């Protein structure tokens, strides 16, 4: 099995849709393959289910794409692939070396010939007063708890934010007998209508959306548009939420405030790609609002600008499972070709078809992400005493003051305020700070740039750094 | 009445979705108290089911915090497990006999 300093032909980071697809396709060609993931189970954020040791869920009808995904998990487990879950990538170094932490206790370095980043996406947040109170959860957390642990985060909740995922989360919550007090959508209703022509072409997505909406309507949950959370209040945890109405420009209409008594609030504002590892590897990144922010630049073969490093899935543009599946396939074919296990001429027509399909997905990406655009007024309207960086408790006032003093870059802000310096390393606040700098400095995102990334990407204990991984240690280190 | 007594004890057993046939009940220690969970749940799920929403005090603001992202990104659900500090509750499976300490005392 795996040892410290092992070398693999192919290392895949992330076992979501694209990682699984690529692993499955690369297997069976006498290549040594390592598929690693930080989570307890394989499958990434979408392919979640009640673990076998927890219990039997009621019969669930999965849509075709999820069925395909779950079948990949089963296939990958049986093939000649080294699987490492609970493994955190800490750094990407020269001479094709990775540093990882396994199960919090041990570290190991791994070498690769070809590396595929399939690191997926995380949620985007829009800070409001009191969003740090216990009881304020993300839509992702709601889904993860329901699907992986069979638990509702609260019996009763209010939901707020923007985009389609909010409705997916609402559907799941109502289906499992949660009491949903209402959905407060930031964007206006006509955004959805604008979106319709795109969705109709994407038949499965249309059906999915219709399923969510019908459940929400039948449950008589009030859905309100152009609503923004003004404040979450409570002593030690959330007790009430104040919601206000915004006008077309994103400005709050005074006197429109309404207070909801609730011990839980679920928020979601779309997604941001997890680009930290490719960034450190030196892969070129580009900023594209249409793709969901900073994304990894890839060619038609899913190759990044760094030799022998490929990227697939959400990190090349937020677009969902179908796109990830497609890109995982293209990446796998390219990897096989690199090892001369597939014939270039024979592959050409297959790839052409996949690449055409990809263009179709990319047009959906464009439309999907336009739904999440947050207006500059909304960003500017964040009150001074609102926490922006949760880890270091840095508020809007400190950020604004630092910008006024001339800290007009992410790293400048970091050095003067400590924002993005805590345990999450800016994963939660960086997208907000990029937006803030863009609005306050009136600069292009490309000019503003990104926070620099250094290893370790995620906190690691000294104990783990001191204990190299050994798989067959007789002493059981 | 029942609702009131549940709230009083702080237990949130009713948050567990009842359509799932759970297999193995396990016991762990939460801040020194014997607490029940089910095998296969994450530590975060076990904490919420035990009514422990507040997970830590932010070291800078000294204000209470709870889990936010549930998927290993935000690090707001850091707890001490079996003496190892700063372990993400959402990324860890609860195991029998685990000693879990939240860091929510001012």
Q: What is the CATH superfamily label of the largest domain in chain A? A: FAD/NAD(P)-binding domain
Give the class-level CATH name of chain B.
Alpha Beta
CATH class descriptor of the largest domain in chain A: Alpha Beta
Q: Can you list the strand order of the major beta sheet of chain B? A: 3-2-8-6-7
Low-pLDDT ranges of chain B: 1-8
Q: Tally of extended strands of chain B? A: 8
User: Which chains share the greatest interface?
Assistant: A-B, 56 and 48 residues
In short:
The complex is a heterodimer of chains A (about 475) and B (about 110). Chain A has about 475 residues and is of the alpha/beta class.
Which key features would you list for this structure?
heterodimer, A: 477 residues, alpha/beta, FAD/NAD(P)-binding domain, Arc Repressor Mutant, subunit A, 3 domains, seven-stranded mixed sheet, five-stranded parallel sheet, 15 helices, globular, B: 106 residues, alpha+beta, Ubiquitin-like (UB roll), five-stranded mixed sheet, two-stranded antiparallel ribbon, 2 helices, 8 strands, disordered N terminus
How would you portray this structure in words?
The complex is a heterodimer of chains A (477) and B (106). Chain A folds into 3 domains: 214 residues, FAD/NAD(P)-binding domain; 145 residues, FAD/NAD(P)-binding domain; 64 residues, Arc Repressor Mutant, subunit A, CATH 1.10.10.1100. Helix content of chain A is 35%, strand content 22%. Chain A contains 15 helices and 22 strands. In chain A, strands 1, 2, 4, 5, 6, 7 and 20 form a 7-stranded mixed sheet that branches. In chain A, helix 1 runs parallel beside helix 8. The C terminus of chain A is likely disordered. The N terminus of chain B is likely disordered. With 106 residues, chain B is an alpha+beta fold. The longest helix of chain B is centred in the N-terminal third of the chain and has 8 residues. In chain B, the strands form 2 sheets. A 5-stranded mixed sheet of chain B has the order 3-2-8-6-7, covered by helices on one side. Chain B has a two-stranded antiparallel ribbon with strand order 4-5. At the A-B interface, strand 3, strand 9 and helix 3 of A face strand 1, helix 2, strand 5 and strand 7 of B. Strand 3 of chain A pairs antiparallel with strand 1 of chain B.
């Amino acid at each position: 099995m795996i040892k410290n300093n092992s070398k693999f032909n192919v290392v895949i980071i992330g076992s979501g849709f694209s990682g699984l697809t690529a692993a499955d396709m690369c297997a069976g060609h006498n290549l040594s393959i390592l598929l690693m993931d930080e989570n307890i189970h394989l499958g990434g954020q979408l392919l979640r289910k009640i673990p076998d040791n927890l219990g039997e869920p009621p019969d669930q009808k999965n849509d075709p794409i999820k069925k395909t995904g779950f079948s990949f998990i089963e296939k990958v487990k049986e093939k000649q692939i080294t699987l490492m879950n609970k493994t955190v990538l800490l750094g990407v170094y020269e001479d094709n070396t990775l540093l990882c932490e396994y199960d919090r206790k041990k570290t190991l370095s791994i070498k690769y010939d070809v590396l595929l980043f399939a690191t997926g996406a995380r949620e985007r947040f829009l800070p409001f007063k009191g969003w740090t109170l216990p009881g304020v959860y993300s839509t992702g957390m709601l889904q993860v708890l329901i699907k992986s642990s069979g638990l509702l985060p609260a019996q009763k909740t209010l939901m707020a934010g923007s985009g389609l995922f909010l409705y997916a989360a609402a559907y799941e919550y109502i289906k499992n007998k949660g009491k949903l007090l209402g959905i407060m959508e930031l964007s206006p209703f006509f955004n959805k209508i604008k979106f319709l022509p795109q969705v109709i072409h994407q038949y499965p997505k249309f059906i999915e959306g219709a399923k969510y909406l019908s459940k929400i309507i039948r449950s008589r949950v009030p859905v309100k548009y152009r609503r923004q959370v003004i404040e979450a209040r409570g002593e030690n945890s959330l007790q009430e939420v104040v919601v206000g109405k915004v006008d077309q420009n994103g400005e709050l209409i005074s006197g429109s405030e309404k207070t909801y008594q609730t011990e839980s609030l679920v928020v979601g504002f779309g997604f941001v790609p997890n680009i930290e590892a490719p960034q450190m590897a030196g892969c070129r990144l580009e900023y594209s609002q249409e793709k969901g922010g900073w994304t990894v630049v890839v060619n038609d073969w899913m190759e990044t600008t760094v030799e022998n490093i490929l990227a697939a899935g959400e990190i090349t543009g937020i677009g969902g499972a179908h796109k990830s599946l497609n890109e995982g396939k293209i990446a796998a074919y390219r990897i096989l070709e690199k090892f001369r296990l597939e014939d270039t001429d024979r592959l050409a027509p297959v790839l052409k078809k996949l690449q055409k399909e990809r263009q179709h997905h990319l047009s959906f990406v464009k439309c999907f992400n336009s739904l999440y655009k947050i207006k500059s007024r909304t960003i500017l309207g964040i009150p001074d005493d609102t926490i922006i960086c949760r880890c270091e408790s840095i508020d809007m006032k400190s950020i604004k003051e630092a910008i006024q003093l001339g800290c007009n870059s992410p790293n400048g802000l970091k050095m003067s305020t400590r924002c993005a310096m805590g345990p999450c390393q800016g994963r939660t606040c960086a997208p907000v700070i990029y937006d803030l700098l863009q609005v306050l400095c009136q600069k292009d995102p490309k000019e503003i740039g990104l926070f620099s990334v250094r290893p370790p990407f995620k906190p690691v204990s000294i104990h783990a750094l001191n204990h190299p991984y050994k798989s067959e240690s007789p002493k059981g280190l | 009445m029942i609702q009131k007594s549940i709230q009083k004890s702080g237990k949130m057993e009713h948050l567990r979705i009842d359509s799932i046939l759970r297999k193995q009940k396990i016991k762990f220690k939460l801040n020194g108290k014997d607490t029940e969970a089910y095998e296969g749940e994450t530590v975060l799920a076990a904490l919420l089911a035990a009514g422990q929403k507040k997970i830590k005090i932010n070291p800078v603001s000294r204000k209470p915090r709870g889990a936010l992202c549930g998927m290993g990104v935000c690090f707001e659900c850091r707890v001490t497990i079996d003496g190892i500090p700063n372990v993400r509750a959402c990324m860890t499976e609860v195991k029998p006999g685990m000693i879990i300490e939240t860091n929510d005392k001012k």
